[in-house]
Design brief:
With 344 residues, this protein is an alpha/beta fold. It is 20% helix and 18% strand.
Length: 344
C-alpha cells in the first residue's frame, strides 16, 4: 500500500481482521490505511481500532444469523451442515452477501448464487445432498470411509512421492532443508551494539484466558477476570530494575514503547521478557490519536516487520526482537488515556 509496488492498492476491505492490533509494526499499517488508500471499508461485530479508521463500517451477521457448512479448514475430510438458527437482525449480512453483490455489480464471471445456502450447494456438488437436505438429516455430516494404505497406490504427498526427511520442496526453493539452529536477526552476537541498549529478548504473543486473540475486550463479564495486559519478568530482572509485581512498566524496542503490568515469575529466563498481545480498550476514546488505546499497550506496535527480520516463510519476528524494560512513570487511568505521537 505504502510503496505502490508492483501496482497501487486503492481500496482495502477489513473482514474478520484487526490489522492495527494483530500484526507487527501496527504503525506502518496505520500509515498505509490512513494515507495511501482512497477507500477503507470494515465489517465486524463490534468497533475496533482498525474499523475506527474506516470510511464505511458494515454490520456482520453473527454465527446465529447465518447458515453453516463446516469444512474444518481441510484438516479433516468431514463436512458438517447447520441450519440458520434465527433471522439476521437489523441490517446485518453474512460475508458472502457482500462479495456476491459486489461481484454482480462489477459483472464478474462465475456462478454467484443468491444465498449463502446456494453457495454451499455448489460446494457440496457431487455429494448428492443440498445444504438443506444435509442439515436436516439426523446425521448432519459427511465423512467418507477411511482409506488405509493409500500411499501404496498414490505415494505420499511430496514431490518424490516418498517420505522426505529433507523436504525437497525447500531445497528446490533455495532454502536449506536441514533444520539447523540459526541465531535471531537481533541478538548479542548478530547485533551487539543494539543489544547494549536493548539487552533482553522479547517474546510477544502471550495468551491469557479468557481472551481469543483481540476479541471480547468489550465484555465486562470477561474483563473483570483479566483487565490489563501483563508482561512476564524473571525475579532477578525485576530486582535489577526495581520493578514490583503488578507495577506498570515500559517495554521498549527501537520502534517505540508500550506499557504493561509486570508479572514476576521464575518460569521465564532472566534474559527474556514475555509480553501479552492483542490489547486495546473499547472504553477509551475512539477518535484519533487514541483509537481505543491501541498505542498504549499493544506490543505489536513495536515489533519489526522489516523483510530482513523475517524468516524464509515470511514469519514476522514475534519471538526474535530485542527490548529493554523499566518502570513506567504513570499508572493506568482509563479516564486519562495516553495520547501517543503518530508519524503522519
Amino acid at each position: 500500500m505504502i510503496e505502490g509496488e508492483p501496482y497501487p492498492i486503492k481500496a482495502f476491505f477489513i473482514q474478520g481482521g484487526n490489522p492495527l492490533v494483530n500484526v507487527s509494526n501496527a504503525k506502518n499499517w496505520h500509515k498505509a490505511m490512513k494515507h495511501h488508500l482512497d477507500l477503507l471499508v470494515g465489517m465486524d461485530f463490534w468497533m475496533t481500532p482498525s474499523l475506527a479508521l474506516c470510511d464505511y463500517v458494515l454490520p456482520a451477521a453473527s454465527f446465529l444469523e447465518r447458515p453453516h457448512l463446516m469444512v474444518f479448514w481441510g484438516v479433516t475430510d468431514t463436512t458438517m451442515a447447520y441450519k440458520q438458527p434465527m433471522e439476521a437482525l437489523y441490517e446485518r449480512k453474512d460475508d458472502y452477501y457482500i462479495w456476491k453483490e459486489l461481484a454482480k455489480r462489477c459483472e464478474l464471471p462465475g456462478e454467484w448464487p443468491d444465498t449463502l445456502e446456494g453457495l454451499f450447494d455448489l460446494y457440496l456438488g457431487k455429494s448428492g445432498f443440498t445444504h438443506k437436505e444435509l442439515a436436516e438429516r439426523d446425521e448432519f455430516w459427511l465423512s467418507p470411509a477411511p482409506h488405509f494404505h493409500n500411499y501404496e497406490k498414490y505415494g505420499f504427498g511430496t514431490p518424490s512421492g516418498k517420505v522426505e526427511f529433507l523436504p525437497s520442496i525447500l531445497e528446490a526453493a533455495g532454502v536449506d532443508p536441514m533444520p539447523d539452529y540459526e541465531d535471531r536477526t537481533q541478538s548479542p552476537t548478530k547485533t551487539p551494539e543494539l543489544a547494549k541498549e536493548y539487552p533482553y529478548y522479547l517474546l510477544s504473543g502471550l495468551r491469557i484466558r479468557p481472551w481469543w486473540h483481540s476479541q471480547h475486550r468489550q465484555l465486562k463479564s470477561l474483563r473483570w477476570m483479566h483487565d490489563y495486559p501483563v508482561v512476564e519478568i524473571h525475579p532477578e530482572t525485576a530486582r535489577k530494575h526495581n520493578i514490583a509485581n503488578g507495577e506498570m512498566v515500559y517495554i521498549e524496542t527501537p520502534l517505540g514503547r508500550v506499557r504493561q503490568k509486570a508479572r514476576i515469575t521464575s518460569e521465564i529466563r532472566p534474559d527474556t521478557v514475555s509480553a501479552e498481545a492483542y490489547w486495546y480498550f473499547p472504553e477509551m476514546p475512539e477518535e484519533e490519536p487514541y483509537l481505543f488505546g491501541v498505542w498504549d499497550t499493544n506490543i505489536n506496535a513495536i515489533i519489526s516487520d522489516e523483510y530482513e527480520d523475517c524468516n524464509f516463510s515470511g514469519d514476522n519476528p514475534y519471538k526474535a526482537c530485542l527490548c529493554k524494560i523499566y518502570k513506567a512513570d504513570t499508572a493506568l487511568d482509563y479516564d486519562s488515556p495516553v495520547a501517543p505521537k503518530i508519524e503522519e
